[in-house]
Amino acid sequence: MNPTEPTANPAPARPTLDNLGLPIGYPFKPDWEVTPRQVRDGLGEGTKSGMIVVDCRRPEEHQHCRIEGTAFIPLSELEQRADELEADDGSRDHPVVIYCHTGRRSLRAAAALRALGYPRAVSMAGGIDLWSIDIDPNVPRY
Fold first, then answer.
1. Based on the structure, what is the number of domains in the chain?
2. Is residue 130 a contact partner of residue 23, using CB atoms and an 8 Å limit?
3. How far apart are CA 69 and CA 42, in angstroms?
4. What range defines the domain where residue 80 resides?
5. What CATH number does the domain containing 91 carry?
6. Which of 24, 40, 50, 75 is most buried when burial is the number of CB atoms within 10 A of its CB?
7. Rounded to the nearest 5°, which phi and psi values hold at 72?
8. What pLDDT is stored for residue 55 in this prediction?
9. pLDDT, tens digit (0-9, with 9 covering 90-100), for 31-66
């Protein structure tokens, strides 16, 4: 087994979710986060929403599972590649949603993007793990 790959342990227990789709007691930060349900709805609108969704996890995590239709820029490359997230006209004032495994790294990524001129950068609360729990159970948990 490759030590850099996510382990194949049994999936963690599924938490009870509130009316927003967040685990009961989750410390949601509405100025910095959106819920997986909001991301799903934005992706459903396609280019109309103007939202870009970015996976900032490590390459081996991205290979293990991902949200289809999203970009992949590892956190370690985000500052150098931030211009890839600009709109066609070069603007940075559109929604950029970052996700990781549980939402911790993506909060750091959102802060970095805001510092680079993306004022609407936010993290997806609970990361791909909560996406799997609430939106798409076909996405493997790890």
1. 1
2. yes
3. 12
4. 38-134
5. 3.40.250.10
6. 75
7. -130, 115
8. 98
9. 999 999 999 999 887 766 789 999 999 999 999 999
